[in-house]
Amino acid sequence: MIIAANLKTNLTRKETKKYINEVDAYITSCNSSQEVLVFPAMSSLDTYKSSVVVGAQNAYPTDNGAFTGEIGLTHLNEFDIKTILIGHSERRHILGETQEELVKKFNYFKELGFKIVYCVGEPLEKREAGKDVMMEYISTQYEGIDTQYENLIIAYEPVWAIGTGLTPTLDDIKDIHKELKDKSSAPLLYGGSVKVANAKEVLSIENVDGVLVGSAALCAEDFCKMIEFAEELS
């Protein structure tokens, strides 16, 4: 399974190093076979000698240039980073990234062979409008994306569940993961208020190939517990 932590705008460089070292020590001590990804804040990117795969939460589709506030391929190469998160709902809905921009970013990093964790999901009003409307909305987020890309991981995150403590029912997660598996054979993660209390149940659901965890992953001990659950289920 794939267990991923999106640290968002949290943890300093020093705190992130401690976090990754703790997670790496746990993986090593129990000889875990799970694929573990961590996406630190931009200022905490570094070269980590670890079994943990460190990825970027975002980057501009360029080598370098006049793009104030962004980082490019040159910066990722400095730390040998080959994994990136694209399409997270916070970048879509708060920072206004369009599908056209995401496709450009996706294609740029695809050509470079990056592992891409591509996020899709719906806001509450789309879910409440019924399954057909919800699926039509999610389908638009697949437009222009190579769903057969060999280094693709898809993360389904219901927008209304992120950071709210609310989660779809287990049956809801099972149903939508079945639908999304028909769109791509890529590994499919669930994200949206995943925490220690529900992670094992979520990981047990058919077609759930792992989880993408936000605030509940900020505690290394809790994140390691989720890795343990995945190991038990493998």
Automatic annotation (TrEMBL):
Its EC number is 5.3.1.1. It is found in: Cytoplasm. GO terms for cellular component: cytosol. It holds the Pfam family TIM. It catalyses: D-glyceraldehyde 3-phosphate = dihydroxyacetone phosphate. One of its GO terms (biological process) is glyceraldehyde-3-phosphate biosynthetic process. SUPFAM superfamilies: Triosephosphate isomerase (TIM). Pathway: Carbohydrate degradation; glycolysis; D-glyceraldehyde 3-phosphate from glycerone phosphate: step 1/1; Carbohydrate biosynthesis; gluconeogenesis. It is an enzyme of class 5 (isomerase). The keyword Transport does not apply. Transmembrane segments: none annotated. It comes from the Bacteria. Keywords: Cytoplasm, Gluconeogenesis, Glycolysis, Isomerase. GO terms for molecular function: triose-phosphate isomerase activity. InterPro entries: Aldolase_TIM (IPR013785), TIM_sf (IPR035990), Triosephosphate_isomerase (IPR000652), Triosephosphate_isomerase_AS (IPR020861). Coiled coil: none annotated. Belongs to the triosephosphate isomerase family. Homodimer. This is Triosephosphate isomerase.
